[in-house]
Amino acid sequence: MSQMLNVALPKGRLGEKVYGLFAQAGFECPALLENSRKLIFENEAAGVRYFWVKPSDVAIYVARGAADIGVAGKDILLEYQPEVYELLDLGIGKCRMAVAAPEGFEENPARTLRVATKFSRIARDYYGSKGREIDIIHLNGSIEIAPILGLSDVIVDIVETGTTLRENHLEVRETIVPISARLIANKSGFKFKRTAIERLMAGLEAQAK
Ligand code: PRP
């Protein structure tokens, strides 16, 4: 038997979709879909071991070699810049990183812009490239509340359907970058398990066509 491929999957709806793609590519592990609180699943015959981890933690497992490969959003890769290989755009989990503001908000270019976000580095790089002075207010969630309560002028956050913004009377002002799910690999794992990883990639690419 060849070596096991250790795979970190993002917990949740996206992760289940990702597992579907991996299973189609020959790395099935039916036990994974049983409704349980278990976090590690293995199918020795298929040569694969899956872990369910918090989506924002996938890149940490992969960078440190606890997982050989994983699937992470481009948002996380841009924000944390983990030392991993980015192998493939899976074309799922599509959304965008955007600047949003309360409906009717008028920016005063003479004042420092207060930006609430979970993505401080992305926000800093974006406004830095425009030469705009900002004050970052780093939050961990429910970012949309910040401008409503006057904590910030705008937010930098992920927009998928736009429902969250609409329901909080915010609107997109600028799109920073499109986001989607990426297949990532540990740098040395990629060398040692290249055959299995390339077989997986070929299977994933075949489905994308
Ligand atoms: C993201 C983001 C928005 C929402 C956008 O949150 O922060 O709140 O999705 O989606 P929509 O445009 O379809 O309404 P997520 O659910 O990923 O979790 P979070 O609250 O932890 O950021």
In whole angstroms, the N-to-C terminal distance is: 30 Å
- What is the molecular shape? elongated
- Major sheet size, sense and barrel closure: 6 strands, mixed
Low-confidence stretches: none
CA-atom Rg in angstroms: 19 Å
Order of helices and strands: EHEEHEHEEEHEHEHEEHH
What small molecules does this complex bind? Answer: 1-O-pyrophosphono-5-O-phosphono-alpha-D-ribofuranose
Going across the major beta sheet, what is the strand order? 2-3-1-4-11-5
Number of strand segments: 11
Helix count equals 8
Name the beta content range: 25-35%
Tell me, rounded to a whole number, the average pLDDT.
95
Instruction: Provide the structure class.
Output: alpha/beta
Helix percentage: 25-40%
Tag the structure with descriptive keywords.
209 residues, alpha/beta, 6-stranded mixed sheet, 11 strands, binds 1-O-pyrophosphono-5-O-phosphono-alpha-D-ribofuranose
Structure overview:
With 209 residues, the chain is of the alpha/beta class. The chain has helices at residues 13-24, 58-63, 74-80, 120-130, 145-148, 163-167, 187-192, 194-208; strands spanning 5-10, 40-43, 48-53, 69-73, 85-89, 95-102, 113-117, 134-138, 154-159, 170-179, 181-185. Strands 2-3-1-4-11-5 form a 6-stranded mixed β-sheet. It has a 5-stranded mixed β-sheet with strand order 8-7-9-6-10. The model has no long low-confidence stretch (mean pLDDT 95). The protein binds 1-O-pyrophosphono-5-O-phosphono-alpha-D-ribofuranose. The site of 1-O-pyrophosphono-5-O-phosphono-alpha-D-ribofuranose (PRP) has 10 residues, from strand 9 and helix 6.
